[in-house]
UniProtKB/TrEMBL annotation:
The chain crosses the membrane at residues 40-62, 99-118, 138-158. Keywords: Endoplasmic reticulum, Membrane, Transmembrane, Transmembrane helix. The gene is Jagn1_0. It comes from the Eukaryota. Its main location: endoplasmic reticulum. It is found in: Endoplasmic reticulum membrane. The keyword Transmembrane helix applies. GO terms for biological process: endoplasmic reticulum organization; granulocyte colony-stimulating factor signaling pathway; vesicle-mediated transport. Belongs to the jagunal family. InterPro entries: Jagunal. The keyword Membrane applies. This is Protein jagunal homolog 1. It is a multi-pass membrane protein. GO terms for cellular component: endoplasmic reticulum membrane.
Length: 183
């Protein structure tokens, strides 16, 4: 073989190495899935910060209660949802399967479960708003139950996609591990 800048071996144009330059598909998928999960984690952190801000403003009485309502009960356990996202981020540098599995399990416990509870907790107030047009809690002039249902829907989608991509990433990592064991 020729080296860079030197003469080429006779009978070759130097492109005979390209078949060895391809990256295995599970490694490509791992990089892509990590990128998607990071985007979802950043979206989750944004939602988390908005809820934290609402809780701080409500409890510290920085604004009147007619502008920012006190938080619903489901918002308190949802604050723990930052932990699964951190575990997910910690699993990326070394493809740590155990951290990713813990992240997926705790996402269900600390993220999805409070969202389900929140949807059930706010349902009577949403029903009252729909039937009678009466809202008693507001966030900057909007019905608090409407705003928080919007947050629940967006957060549920973020966590759903996060779990889906995490499962695909876990499968990709298992494929890589199985190929290493075969060698």
């Amino acid at each position: 073989m020729a080296f860079r800048g030197g003469p080429r071996a006779s009978g070759t144009d130097g492109s005979d190495f390209q078949h060895r330059e391809r990256v295995a598909s599970h490694y490509q998928m791992s990089v892509t899935l990590k990128s998607e999960i990071k985007k979802l984690i950043y979206m989750h952190v944004g939602i988390w910060l908005l809820l934290l801000a609402q809780m701080c403003v409500g409890h510290l009485k920085l604004l009147p209660h007619d502008q920012v309502a006190m938080p619903y009960q489901w918002e308190y356990p949802y604050l723990l949802s930052i932990l699964p996202s951190l575990l997910g981020l910690f699993s990326f540098p070394r493809n740590n399967i155990s951290y990713l599995v813990l992240s997926m399990i705790s996402t269900g416990l600390f993220s999805v479960a409070p969202l389900i509870y929140g949807a059930m907790e706010m349902f009577p107030m949403a029903q009252q708003l729909y039937r009678h047009g009466k809202a008693y809690r507001f966030i900057f002039g909007f019905s608090a139950v409407s705003v928080m249902y919007l947050v629940v829907v967006v957060a549920a989608q973020v966590h759903g996609w996060q779990l889906y991509y995490s499962k695909k990433l876990l499968d990709s990592w298992f494929t890589s591990t199985q190929e290493k064991k075969k060698k």
